[in-house]
Design goal:
Helices cover 51% and strands 19% of the residues. It has 182 residues and is of the alpha+beta class. The strands form 3 sheets. The protein has a two-stranded antiparallel ribbon. A two-stranded antiparallel sheet has the order 3-4. The chain has a two-stranded antiparallel ribbon with strand order 5-6. A hairpin with a 2-residue loop joins strand 3 and strand 4. Helix 2 packs antiparallel against helix 3. The longest helix has 41 residues. The termini are far apart.
């Protein structure tokens, strides 16, 4: 039995050595092709002992984005928006990247401004529509009140009341426009 186990062990060692040689697992072969980036980025890498290395055509696995997580979300941050990247080893064995990204705050402010501008323009358009409607109603009342006898005084009073309602709506809309412009 012991002799049988020894033969199995020797056969395993010989077979494993042969298979490793066939697969290239034991060799010194490097990568056969380097990824070509879609954009060219030059970076300076500074290691822990302050050695500076300048790299051109820099990528991470052929990508020109940092991929990661923030909270439960996944991010892809393009290199062109990054000023600086610092990497730290985490106690649990992972790698943490701290990125200084330019333009994010400015972009958020521009987006907020664009939203406010759209709100303002929408409110201003509504105000203009109400003013146009009011002018149209006033023209109709003038038509009814042309020189001569008024045939339907109740109709004139209804239109006058409606104009009062429109005036109130215009005033409220003007307040909304002022609020949206701030």
């Amino acid at each position: 039995m012991k002799r049988h186990g020894l033969w199995v062990y020797l056969l395993f060692v010989l077979l494993a050595g042969t298979l490793m040689g066939m697969g290239g697992l034991g060799g010194d072969e490097g990568p056969t092709r380097l990824p070509t980036p879609d954009k060219l980025f030059s970076v300076t890498v500074v290691d822990q002992v302050d050695v500076h290395t300048i790299l051109t055509q820099f990528t991470i696995g052929g990508y020109t984005h940092f991929f990661g997580r923030r909270g439960k979300g996944q991010l892809a941050i393009p290199f062109e928006t990054i000023d600086r990247a610092d990497f730290r080893m985490l106690p649990e064995g992972g790698l943490e990247a701290v990125l200084k990204v330019r333009g994010i705050r400015e972009k958020k402010e521009q987006e907020k401004f664009a939203v406010k501008k759209r709100e303002y323009l929408t409110e201003k358009e509504r105000e203009d529509q109400l003013k146009t409607k009011k002018k149209s109603e006033e023209a109709e009342i003038r038509q009814v009140l042309k020189p001569g006898p008024v045939s339907d005084f109740e109709k004139v009073m209804r239109r006058h009341a409606h104009l009062g309602v429109l005036k109130g709506e215009i005033e409220k809309q003007m307040e909304k426009v002022i609020e949206a412009s701030q």
